[in-house]
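Protein modeling request. Please complete all fields; requests missing the sequence field cannot be processed.
Requester role: graduate student
Desired output: 3D structure, token encoding
Chains: 1
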Amino acid sequence: MQPELDLFTILPEDKIPEKGKILISEPFLPDTFFSRSIVYLTDHTPRGSVGFILNKKLDLKLSAAIEGFEGWDENLNMGGPVAPDTLHYLHNMGDLIPKSVFVEGNIYWGGDIDTIRELIKTGKIKQSQIRFFLGYSGWSAGQLELELKEDSWVIAKVKSDIVMNNRGDDTWKRVLRSFKNKYRMWADFPDSPEMN
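Delivered output (196 residues):
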């Protein structure tokens, strides 16, 4: 097993967002959706950006929320504040799921939902191979770049298996603690500094 330090590479001087990178929110970002979040970017073009929050699990099972997923008892994740009534998914089954969009490494986004239902029904896909999200995180043209200039986010590169396997609420702290620089200290900042 590789040490955790090898799983994340901080890019503090890199202010260029790209698909396949993660955004780590600064500790006091005053946004309820993005507070202490990690967002995986699945698309970034001059027209805008799309991503999914990796560390905000909802208290709602996929099987209870969407028909055709009986027996799939994994919790849905909050992907972001945009279109919160839409279902999205990241997976590493791109060769088996038509219309999937390649992101990077072995990560794909979307694809034919009926194929996914069939793979689940026949046991040909494991929970470690797919993640489901309600809503997504979106930025219009230039918006994310502005937030990066305001130091709302730190950009990091992450191994693709971490995107699929890090599902806990403690992911934000664990990622920050893996760095050997000033960002490591962010992990221990209190949620409300005025209460300290």
